[in-house]
Amino acid sequence: MHNIAVLLSGNGSNLKAIIDKGINISFVASNNSKALGLKIAKNANIPSYSWKNISEFEEKVLKLIIEYDVKLLVLAGYMRLLSKNFVNSLPSKFIVNVHPSLLPKYKGMNAIKQAIDDCAEYTGVTIHYVDEGMDSGSIIKQNSIKINEIDTVETLRDRLQAIEHCLYSDTIKSILIKD
Ligand code: GAR
Predict the structure, then answer these.
(1) How far is CA 46 from CA 26, 42, 49, 73, 88, in A?
(2) What pLDDT digit, counting tens, does each position of 154-173 carry?
(3) In the list 65, 143, 152, 158, which could disulfide-bond 70, CB 3.0-4.6 Å?
(4) Residue 60: inside a domain, yes or no?
(5) Ligand 1 pocket, 10 CB below 6 A?
(6) Which residues participate in catalysis according to the annotation?
(7) Does residue 12 line the site of ligand 1, with CB under 6 A?
(8) Residue 158 phi, psi (nearest 5)
């Protein structure tokens, strides 16, 4: 199976789920040197990198993609918008993202809080290709769940992440098998 690379900014629970699924990861990169996801990568002996400066980050990641012959770039809690130049340097359908809402609803940061504040009856998880916009690329898969009256951002996040961990790694695997 082809290799992927993962970009992240935080905890890396989706990275962990992807590793556990047996998907080959060439490298992990973060804009945040303290991201727990980098520790998960190191523990799994996956080369890991971090650069804070956005242009340096994107320049280095593009070089690594070529060096490692990466076939799919996976955003797993990467909380910064990729530049148009970066996205356009790669083939279409090369970058995928997971987002905790039923896109096109509740784009951007705090998607779970946005759904609660909006008194939405349902929310969910979206896996989509990444284009130049914010959470706007074509949708690959969605799963929805009902928001309960007693749900808080934390309880809803836990339920959504449990879905993400299966849905994202399964989707990545099926994209790699198809290519
Ligand atoms: C995930 O829940 C993902 O849906 C969200 O960040 C979390 C990262 O968790 N992504 C976004 O909100 C993107 N706009 P993780 O670091 O534990 O995988």
Answers:
(1) 7, 6, 10, 15, 27
(2) 999 999 999 999 999 999 99
(3) 65
(4) yes
(5) yes
(6) 99
(7) yes
(8) -60, -45
In terms of residue numbers, what domain contains 84? 4-98+126-142+166-178
CA atoms within 13 A on the CB side of 41: 29
Q: Is 8 in the pocket of ligand 1 (CB under 6 A)?
A: yes
Instruction: Provide the token pair at 157.
Output: 């996040």
Specify the CATH number for the domain of residue 11.
Answer: 3.40.50.170
On whether residue 137 sits in a domain, the answer given is: yes
- Tell me if 103 is assigned to some domain: no
Residue 24 in tokens:
């080959």
- The number of residues making up the chain comes to 179
Q: How many domains does the chain have?
A: 1
pLDDT of residue 79: 95
Strand pairing of 25-30 and 72-75? Answer: unpaired
Does residue 99's CB lie within 6 angstroms of at least one atom of ligand 1? Answer: yes
Instruction: Determine, yes or no, domain membership for 104.
Output: no
Rounded to two decimals, the pTM is 0.97
Phi-psi domain of 13 (left: phi exceeds 0; alpha: psi -120 through 50; beta: other): alpha
Chain-centre distance for alpha carbon 65: 16
